[in-house]
Amino acid sequence: MPYSTKHCVIGVVTVAVLAAGVGTATAQAAPDRSTCSWTVQKLPAVPGFKQSSSYGTDHASHVFGAVTNDSGLTESPTVWSTDAGTPPRVLGSAHGADTRITALNAAGVAVGYYHDSTGRHPVRYVDGAYQDLPVPADARQAEAVDINAGGDIVGTVDGSSIILWPADRPGSYTVLPKAAGDSAAANGIDNARNIVGTVGHDDQITAYVWNSAGKATALPTATAGTWAAPRSIRNGRVVGAEEGSGRGAVIVWDLSGRVLWRLVTHGASSINADGLVSGWQSVPDGLVQQVMRNGRVVAPVPSEQGFFAAGGSSALTDSGLLAGDVQQQVATARCR
Protein backbone atom coordinates (compact mmCIF):
# COMPACT_ATOMS: atom_id res chain seq x y z
CA MET A 1 0.00 0.00 0.00
CA PRO A 2 1.19 3.59 -0.49
CA TYR A 3 2.59 5.56 2.41
CA SER A 4 -0.20 6.62 4.71
CA THR A 5 -0.20 10.10 6.20
CA LYS A 6 -1.55 9.01 9.56
CA HIS A 7 0.67 9.93 12.48
CA CYS A 8 1.57 6.36 13.33
CA VAL A 9 3.80 3.43 12.50
CA ILE A 10 2.14 1.20 9.93
CA GLY A 11 2.73 -2.49 9.54
CA VAL A 12 6.05 -4.32 9.43
CA VAL A 13 8.69 -4.20 6.71
CA THR A 14 8.32 -6.69 3.87
CA VAL A 15 11.78 -7.29 2.44
CA ALA A 16 12.70 -8.19 -1.11
CA VAL A 17 16.25 -9.56 -1.28
CA LEU A 18 18.03 -10.62 -4.43
CA ALA A 19 18.38 -14.38 -4.39
CA ALA A 20 21.54 -14.13 -6.44
CA GLY A 21 23.24 -11.83 -3.94
CA VAL A 22 25.85 -9.56 -5.46
CA GLY A 23 26.72 -11.99 -8.26
CA THR A 24 29.32 -11.04 -10.82
CA ALA A 25 28.65 -7.34 -10.53
CA THR A 26 31.38 -7.07 -7.88
CA ALA A 27 34.23 -7.75 -10.32
CA GLN A 28 36.92 -5.16 -9.70
CA ALA A 29 37.81 -2.63 -12.36
CA ALA A 30 41.33 -1.22 -12.50
CA PRO A 31 41.66 2.46 -11.61
CA ASP A 32 41.57 4.65 -14.70
CA ARG A 33 43.03 8.05 -13.90
CA SER A 34 42.03 10.52 -16.55
CA THR A 35 44.00 13.41 -17.93
CA CYS A 36 41.26 15.93 -17.13
CA SER A 37 42.30 19.22 -15.60
CA TRP A 38 40.69 20.66 -12.49
CA THR A 39 39.44 24.23 -12.24
CA VAL A 40 38.94 25.45 -8.66
CA GLN A 41 36.92 28.56 -7.87
CA LYS A 42 36.43 30.20 -4.49
CA LEU A 43 32.94 31.52 -3.83
CA PRO A 44 32.39 34.95 -2.25
CA ALA A 45 33.10 35.51 1.43
CA VAL A 46 30.30 36.76 3.66
CA PRO A 47 31.04 40.15 5.22
CA GLY A 48 31.54 39.87 8.96
CA PHE A 49 32.55 36.19 8.89
CA LYS A 50 36.10 34.84 8.76
CA GLN A 51 35.40 31.25 7.72
CA SER A 52 32.95 29.24 5.65
CA SER A 53 32.33 25.55 5.04
CA SER A 54 30.37 23.70 2.36
CA TYR A 55 28.14 20.72 3.13
CA GLY A 56 26.51 19.97 -0.22
CA THR A 57 24.62 21.30 -3.24
CA ASP A 58 21.09 21.55 -4.60
CA HIS A 59 22.27 19.20 -7.41
CA ALA A 60 22.21 22.21 -9.75
CA SER A 61 23.62 25.69 -9.25
CA HIS A 62 23.86 26.33 -5.51
CA VAL A 63 26.10 25.24 -2.64
CA PHE A 64 24.90 25.22 0.96
CA GLY A 65 26.93 25.29 4.12
CA ALA A 66 27.68 27.70 6.94
CA VAL A 67 29.72 30.73 7.91
CA THR A 68 31.44 31.13 11.27
CA ASN A 69 33.97 33.14 13.25
CA ASP A 70 34.93 30.42 15.73
CA SER A 71 35.80 27.35 13.62
CA GLY A 72 32.22 26.10 13.66
CA LEU A 73 31.40 26.33 17.35
CA THR A 74 28.61 28.65 16.26
CA GLU A 75 27.58 28.93 12.65
CA SER A 76 25.00 30.54 10.38
CA PRO A 77 23.50 28.48 7.52
CA THR A 78 24.32 30.04 4.14
CA VAL A 79 23.62 29.40 0.45
CA TRP A 80 26.02 30.35 -2.37
CA SER A 81 25.35 30.49 -6.09
CA THR A 82 27.95 28.65 -8.17
CA ASP A 83 28.12 31.90 -10.13
CA ALA A 84 30.83 33.66 -8.14
CA GLY A 85 29.38 37.03 -9.13
CA THR A 86 26.25 36.44 -7.05
CA PRO A 87 26.38 37.37 -3.34
CA PRO A 88 25.75 34.53 -0.85
CA ARG A 89 22.55 34.44 1.17
CA VAL A 90 22.75 33.95 4.96
CA LEU A 91 19.64 32.12 6.17
CA GLY A 92 20.05 32.88 9.85
CA SER A 93 18.87 30.56 12.60
CA ALA A 94 15.60 28.91 13.56
CA HIS A 95 14.11 30.29 16.80
CA GLY A 96 17.45 31.94 17.57
CA ALA A 97 19.00 28.52 18.24
CA ASP A 98 21.98 26.71 16.69
CA THR A 99 20.78 25.56 13.27
CA ARG A 100 22.26 23.13 10.72
CA ILE A 101 21.09 22.79 7.11
CA THR A 102 21.41 19.23 5.79
CA ALA A 103 19.91 19.48 2.28
CA LEU A 104 18.70 21.96 -0.33
CA ASN A 105 16.64 21.51 -3.49
CA ALA A 106 16.74 23.51 -6.71
CA ALA A 107 13.57 25.38 -5.72
CA GLY A 108 15.54 26.93 -2.87
CA VAL A 109 13.88 24.97 -0.05
CA ALA A 110 16.39 23.99 2.65
CA VAL A 111 15.89 21.44 5.43
CA GLY A 112 17.72 20.55 8.61
CA TYR A 113 17.29 21.03 12.33
CA TYR A 114 17.89 23.38 15.22
CA HIS A 115 19.21 22.38 18.61
CA ASP A 116 18.13 23.72 22.00
CA SER A 117 18.05 22.51 25.60
CA THR A 118 15.21 20.08 24.82
CA GLY A 119 16.84 18.35 21.84
CA ARG A 120 16.95 18.55 18.05
CA HIS A 121 13.94 19.76 16.07
CA PRO A 122 13.41 19.43 12.28
CA VAL A 123 12.79 22.49 10.14
CA ARG A 124 12.53 23.60 6.57
CA TYR A 125 13.45 27.02 5.19
CA VAL A 126 11.17 28.45 2.49
CA ASP A 127 10.19 31.95 1.37
CA GLY A 128 12.72 33.55 3.67
CA ALA A 129 11.65 31.89 6.92
CA TYR A 130 12.06 28.69 8.91
CA GLN A 131 9.06 26.43 9.48
CA ASP A 132 8.84 23.68 12.10
CA LEU A 133 8.11 20.18 10.79
CA PRO A 134 5.63 18.08 12.80
CA VAL A 135 6.88 15.05 14.73
CA PRO A 136 5.37 12.43 17.06
CA ALA A 137 4.45 13.89 20.44
CA ASP A 138 7.13 11.96 22.33
CA ALA A 139 9.99 12.82 19.93
CA ARG A 140 13.05 14.40 21.51
CA GLN A 141 15.74 14.19 18.83
CA ALA A 142 14.53 14.65 15.25
CA GLU A 143 16.15 16.03 12.15
CA ALA A 144 15.31 16.45 8.48
CA VAL A 145 17.99 14.68 6.44
CA ASP A 146 17.14 15.21 2.76
CA ILE A 147 14.65 16.83 0.38
CA ASN A 148 13.81 15.98 -3.23
CA ALA A 149 12.96 18.27 -6.14
CA GLY A 150 9.24 18.08 -5.37
CA GLY A 151 9.68 19.05 -1.72
CA ASP A 152 9.25 15.62 -0.09
CA ILE A 153 11.42 15.52 3.05
CA VAL A 154 12.85 12.53 4.90
CA GLY A 155 14.38 12.44 8.35
CA THR A 156 15.16 10.47 11.48
CA VAL A 157 13.38 10.57 14.84
CA ASP A 158 15.20 9.65 18.07
CA GLY A 159 17.70 7.55 16.14
CA SER A 160 15.06 4.84 15.88
CA SER A 161 12.54 5.72 13.15
CA ILE A 162 12.47 7.10 9.61
CA ILE A 163 9.94 9.86 9.03
CA LEU A 164 8.57 11.22 5.74
CA TRP A 165 6.99 14.65 5.32
CA PRO A 166 5.14 14.48 1.95
CA ALA A 167 5.02 17.68 -0.07
CA ASP A 168 1.49 16.99 -1.29
CA ARG A 169 0.13 16.76 2.27
CA PRO A 170 1.53 19.74 4.19
CA GLY A 171 1.47 19.42 7.96
CA SER A 172 1.39 15.62 7.92
CA TYR A 173 4.01 12.92 8.27
CA THR A 174 4.46 9.17 7.97
CA VAL A 175 6.71 6.97 10.07
CA LEU A 176 8.10 4.14 7.95
CA PRO A 177 7.29 0.63 9.14
CA LYS A 178 9.74 -1.49 11.10
CA ALA A 179 9.58 -4.32 13.59
CA ALA A 180 9.17 -3.50 17.28
CA GLY A 181 12.54 -2.99 18.94
CA ASP A 182 14.39 -2.21 15.72
CA SER A 183 16.11 1.10 15.11
CA ALA A 184 16.12 2.96 11.80
CA ALA A 185 17.83 5.99 10.26
CA ALA A 186 17.29 7.85 6.99
CA ASN A 187 20.02 8.70 4.50
CA GLY A 188 18.21 10.17 1.50
CA ILE A 189 15.21 10.52 -0.79
CA ASP A 190 15.06 10.77 -4.59
CA ASN A 191 12.64 12.50 -6.93
CA ALA A 192 10.46 9.38 -7.21
CA ARG A 193 10.08 9.35 -3.40
CA ASN A 194 12.33 6.30 -2.98
CA ILE A 195 13.92 6.45 0.47
CA VAL A 196 17.25 4.92 1.46
CA GLY A 197 18.25 4.17 5.03
CA THR A 198 19.25 1.51 7.53
CA VAL A 199 17.48 -0.70 10.03
CA GLY A 200 19.23 -2.11 13.09
CA HIS A 201 18.10 -5.39 14.63
CA ASP A 202 20.07 -6.65 17.65
CA ASP A 203 23.69 -6.35 16.46
CA GLN A 204 22.90 -6.42 12.74
CA ILE A 205 22.52 -3.42 10.43
CA THR A 206 20.77 -3.76 7.07
CA ALA A 207 20.41 -1.08 4.41
CA TYR A 208 17.13 -0.75 2.50
CA VAL A 209 15.45 1.18 -0.26
CA TRP A 210 11.74 1.85 0.33
CA ASN A 211 9.75 2.67 -2.79
CA SER A 212 6.80 5.05 -2.84
CA ALA A 213 4.42 2.15 -2.17
CA GLY A 214 6.29 1.28 1.03
CA LYS A 215 8.01 -1.90 -0.23
CA ALA A 216 11.51 -2.38 1.22
CA THR A 217 14.41 -3.90 -0.72
CA ALA A 218 17.63 -4.89 1.05
CA LEU A 219 21.00 -3.70 -0.24
CA PRO A 220 23.52 -6.58 -0.03
CA THR A 221 27.27 -6.57 0.55
CA ALA A 222 29.86 -8.93 -0.90
CA THR A 223 31.91 -9.85 2.17
CA ALA A 224 30.84 -11.84 5.21
CA GLY A 225 30.82 -9.83 8.42
CA THR A 226 30.16 -6.52 6.66
CA TRP A 227 27.14 -4.27 6.36
CA ALA A 228 26.01 -1.63 3.89
CA ALA A 229 26.13 2.03 4.88
CA PRO A 230 24.19 3.97 2.21
CA ARG A 231 25.10 7.59 1.63
CA SER A 232 23.07 8.97 -1.25
CA ILE A 233 20.32 8.09 -3.76
CA ARG A 234 20.01 9.72 -7.18
CA ASN A 235 18.41 8.84 -10.51
CA GLY A 236 17.92 5.13 -9.85
CA ARG A 237 21.23 4.52 -8.07
CA VAL A 238 22.30 4.26 -4.44
CA VAL A 239 25.90 4.78 -3.35
CA GLY A 240 27.29 3.63 -0.06
CA ALA A 241 30.07 1.80 1.68
CA GLU A 242 30.75 -1.77 2.72
CA GLU A 243 31.83 -1.49 6.34
CA GLY A 244 32.96 -3.92 9.02
CA SER A 245 35.64 -6.55 8.55
CA GLY A 246 37.87 -6.41 5.50
CA ARG A 247 39.24 -3.47 3.55
CA GLY A 248 35.97 -1.65 2.93
CA ALA A 249 34.54 -0.72 -0.45
CA VAL A 250 32.38 1.72 -2.37
CA ILE A 251 29.23 0.03 -3.67
CA VAL A 252 26.67 1.35 -6.14
CA TRP A 253 23.32 -0.46 -6.29
CA ASP A 254 20.27 -0.04 -8.48
CA LEU A 255 16.81 0.18 -6.93
CA SER A 256 16.32 -3.60 -7.17
CA GLY A 257 19.31 -4.12 -4.87
CA ARG A 258 21.59 -5.31 -7.67
CA VAL A 259 25.22 -4.27 -7.28
CA LEU A 260 26.25 -2.21 -10.31
CA TRP A 261 29.87 -1.83 -9.26
CA ARG A 262 32.17 -2.14 -6.28
CA LEU A 263 35.63 -0.71 -5.63
CA VAL A 264 37.64 -1.93 -2.63
CA THR A 265 39.63 0.29 -0.23
CA HIS A 266 37.40 3.22 -1.19
CA GLY A 267 34.64 5.22 0.51
CA ALA A 268 31.89 7.41 -0.90
CA SER A 269 30.12 10.66 -0.08
CA SER A 270 27.76 11.43 -2.97
CA ILE A 271 26.48 10.37 -6.39
CA ASN A 272 25.00 12.55 -9.10
CA ALA A 273 22.34 11.84 -11.73
CA ASP A 274 25.00 10.71 -14.22
CA GLY A 275 26.48 8.15 -11.81
CA LEU A 276 29.60 10.14 -10.90
CA VAL A 277 30.67 9.44 -7.30
CA SER A 278 32.72 11.59 -4.93
CA GLY A 279 34.68 9.84 -2.22
CA TRP A 280 38.14 8.72 -1.24
CA GLN A 281 40.69 5.92 -1.21
CA SER A 282 42.27 4.63 1.98
CA VAL A 283 46.07 4.70 1.82
CA PRO A 284 48.65 3.86 4.53
CA ASP A 285 49.10 7.48 5.60
CA GLY A 286 45.50 8.65 5.31
CA LEU A 287 42.89 9.28 2.62
CA VAL A 288 43.09 10.47 -0.99
CA GLN A 289 39.92 12.20 -2.18
CA GLN A 290 38.76 11.08 -5.63
CA VAL A 291 35.85 11.01 -8.06
CA MET A 292 34.80 7.65 -9.48
CA ARG A 293 32.48 6.17 -12.07
CA ASN A 294 31.60 2.58 -13.05
CA GLY A 295 34.18 1.06 -10.71
CA ARG A 296 37.05 3.22 -11.91
CA VAL A 297 38.82 6.24 -10.49
CA VAL A 298 38.18 9.18 -12.80
CA ALA A 299 40.56 11.60 -11.10
CA PRO A 300 42.01 12.52 -7.70
CA VAL A 301 40.57 15.68 -6.15
CA PRO A 302 43.00 18.63 -6.57
CA SER A 303 44.39 18.74 -3.04
CA GLU A 304 47.55 20.33 -4.42
CA GLN A 305 45.37 23.41 -5.04
CA GLY A 306 44.25 23.34 -1.41
CA PHE A 307 40.79 21.99 -2.32
CA PHE A 308 39.02 19.56 0.00
CA ALA A 309 35.69 18.12 -1.14
CA ALA A 310 32.54 18.43 0.94
CA GLY A 311 31.51 15.25 2.70
CA GLY A 312 27.76 15.64 2.25
CA SER A 313 25.52 13.31 0.27
CA SER A 314 24.90 16.02 -2.35
CA ALA A 315 28.48 17.24 -2.77
CA LEU A 316 28.29 16.72 -6.55
CA THR A 317 25.91 18.58 -8.83
CA ASP A 318 24.33 16.71 -11.73
CA SER A 319 26.67 18.57 -14.09
CA GLY A 320 29.72 17.27 -12.20
CA LEU A 321 30.62 20.36 -10.16
CA LEU A 322 32.08 19.36 -6.78
CA ALA A 323 31.52 21.50 -3.68
CA GLY A 324 34.29 21.90 -1.14
CA ASP A 325 36.56 24.33 0.66
CA VAL A 326 39.85 26.11 0.03
CA GLN A 327 41.61 27.68 3.01
CA GLN A 328 38.42 27.81 5.09
CA GLN A 329 36.40 29.34 2.27
CA VAL A 330 33.64 27.67 0.25
CA ALA A 331 34.75 26.70 -3.25
CA THR A 332 33.86 24.51 -6.21
CA ALA A 333 35.96 22.31 -8.48
CA ARG A 334 35.34 20.84 -11.92
CA CYS A 335 37.45 18.35 -13.88
CA ARG A 336 37.36 18.77 -17.68
From TrEMBL:
> Signal peptide location in the record?
1-29
Which keywords annotate this record?
Signal
What is the protein name stated in its UniProt record?
HAF family extracellular repeat protein
Q: Which taxonomic lineage does the organism of this UniProt entry have?
A: Bacteria, Bacillati, Actinomycetota, Actinomycetes, Pseudonocardiales
